[in-house]
Give the backbone structure.
Amino acid sequence: MSHRGSLLCLPSGIYGWDVRAGDAVSAAALERVFAEAGEIDQLLLGTGRGLDFPSEALRFACRDVAIGLEAMSTGAAIRTYNILLGEGRRVAAALIATE
């Protein structure tokens, strides 16, 4: 399986995500994630090649639905997602494309 562009990896499947930069991630951009909050304990936010810290509003929005938020480069987020998923953890990923 192959995907291009930014992605949301959720318990219900993998979806294209129309976000191209870390500073464009908002609660509205994560609406699909929040709709599945009951099945997600941790959200890994891959912010591209570098690290962009999520806004305070985004951190509070995740906290309000009991989802832990971890930001890191997209490569690190993919590796971490695969490990946690393999352990059977309730994890999701929002991955900004690096190209």
